[in-house]
Each structure stands twice: as C-alpha cells, then as structure tokens.
Amino acid sequence: MDNSSNTKSTKLTEIHLSSGDDEIFHPAPLPTDDDGFIVAFNIDQHDEILTFFEKHGVVVVANVLTEQECERSVDDVWKFLQEMFNPNIDRDKPETWDSNWPMFSHMGILGSERWLYPQACDNRQNPNIYKVFCTLFGDHELMTNVTRAGLMRPTKNVYFPSLNKTEDRENWKTISNWLHLDVNPLTGRATTYGFEHVAEGHFEPSNAPRAAQNKSTNNGMRVRKLQAVLALVDCREQDGGFHAVPGFQHYIVTWTKQNEKLCLHSNQSRDPTSVQIPRDDPIREHIQRMPIRKGSLLVWDTRLPHGNYPNNSNQMRIIQYLHMAPIADEALRPFPLSKQDLPETFQLTELGEKLYGFKSWESDNAQYRFQEQRNSEVLDQALYERQVRDLMKARYQTNKNSS
C-alpha cells in the first residue's frame, strides 16, 4: 500500500544540521533498556525521533518490520548465499559455512553483490521505513539505495552436526577496531554506494581537495546524509555488530582541522569518500556498541565515525543495509535498475516505483531530475552486474537439476 500521500500531507518538522564546529567533543552516549538494547522509539514519535537524532546523530526505531517480514528476509539471505556463492551452503550445517563464503566477510558484509531478493526488495519500499526517513530528512520525495546484506557467523560454542560437538571458530571473527567515516570532511565527498553517483567516479580522488567543497555535488558537510541497518534477527551485544561515536557530528569540523593531513591522504586512497580513524585517535574512547532488536531500524548521520565489532557468541548477526536520500540531493540518483532486475514474485507498489526511481515524484525539481542524462559508467556497471547475476543463478539451477 502506498502511503506517500499520507506522509506528504503531514507537516514535516524542519531539520537542524549541526555546524560541527564545537571546540571540544561532548560525548552523547545512547541509553539502553533493561535487556541491554539501545532504547528505541515508535514510528509515530516524529518529534522525539528528530530531537534525539539531532543530539546523538543516531537513532533506533522499533518494529518497522513484522516478525514474518524478518523471517522472510533471513530466508532471502540463505537463498542469496546458495545462488550466488555456493549451492551447498546449508543454514543448519556450519560445516558448509567455509567454502566459497562471500568476500568482505571479515567486515560482516556479504560480498559486493546487490541483494535483489523478494523480501529484501520489499523492505526498500516498506512504508514504515520510508516514514522514518521522511521524519529525519524533513522531505517526502526520497529514493532508496540498493546494496547488500550483512551477516556475522557465530564464533563461540558452534554446534557441528557431523562432529556431534561444539567448537569455537576464531577465524570467523570479523576485524576488530574498525572505525571510519563514509564522508571525507575536507572534500565534502560522501559515499554514493547503492546510488548512481552524479559527479566524479566513486573511487576517483578530487584534484583540488581543499577547494572540492565548492562543487555542488560534494555536499556531504552541507546537507543531511544518512546511513542505516535493518535488524533481521535480535542483534545482541555479544553477537557483534554496529558501533559508532554518538555526538561526533557536532565536532567534526574541529576534528577535520586537526586531521587535515589524514583527510588529504584519504583523498588519494582506494576510496576517497572514506576516512579510516587512526588507532591512537582519542575519539575512540567514546565508541559505543549498539545492540538492536529484530525488526528495528538504526539510522546514523554519515558524519559519525562508525564500523562493526566482532561476534563473540553462538548466534548469528544478520542485517540489511538500507537507507534513503532526498531526490533533491545533487550528488545522487537512484541506482539504474531495470524492472527485469527485480524478482518475479516481488510486487512494486506506487511508493516503490518512486523510491526505486522508475517513476518521478511530483515536484518540478523531481521531474527535472527524472529526465537527467544518466551516468554511463554506472549504467555499464548495472549491465555487468545483471549479467553476473544471471550467470550465477543459471549455474545454480543447473547444479540443482543435475543433483
């Protein structure tokens, strides 16, 4: 059901973008409930969500997915692993979780492939999730990114049926101490992953980094940029997961002045839109782990240092990377999927047509942007990914039929 008209008719609260120039850092830790999870808001607590977010730079909203939607999402994860990586992977047999496991598993991420499965696609057009982003952006004309799933394998007391015993798997742990920014605060270039980038290629450095913010598309320090994870299972502290430095958005300009050399170096790195926080940076003293319940959406300001910390339990951490951006964001366009890229059993809603970029929103600016010439580099990338997906699924079906 499309609820975009309902959101449009609701007066959205004006957002406040912190100037980021506090002279000293003021820690803003998030409260936790009696079970150790980050305190979460209900979807309809618009003002409370926004007030909390503008103080902490991160907020959790509960029950954006139902129990059934979470279960179907997890089913999609295992189907994805079998079709795209190894048909012998079995969710009930940890013995199968080694061979051909996806790249980036050391970061808790399932490969670089876009997660295009029925429930995963439906989550991107979920009215509850859309409503959260409307609240945080103060805008209803949004687009969704199209990215990946995340999974951390259990590492302690894992039961192996073939051995009839439990064992630890230290080699399944993700990296420790990973803390980074997905925006270079010197150049203003923020990550465009999951969208179509409008200006420089995502991995191309800025030629004049100190003046780069003069470009309208290098707007990461001028407009609100958000990222998020969607919990598909209970993500307890011991299961590994997301950590960040809440409140850092109020201090980031001051920090950038103190770390200009680091930002210049990052501009020449493999990903010039990302800055890795040094191991000896005192800001690390204020990292907070953020456990969240199944069906919850955790949204953070891109100006927060963040990352993942390792699993230390016998349960999996499973999430979906899912966030949105305003159509008015000059740096981004919807990723150029075709409807043929979407699963046959997935039904686009009227809201989904607009979020995925198949149909324009109503404003003049949105309709103008809908007609913009697309980035040929990203179009080629989308075509290549489509061919790889088709090849892998055909190979999976062949193996399945012959077994």
From TrEMBL:
<dbReference type="Pfam" id="PF05721">
    <property type="entry name" value="PhyH"/>
</dbReference>
<dbReference type="InterPro" id="IPR008775">
    <property type="entry name" value="Phytyl_CoA_dOase-like"/>
</dbReference>
<protein>
    <recommendedName>
        <fullName>Phytanoyl-CoA dioxygenase</fullName>
    </recommendedName>
</protein>
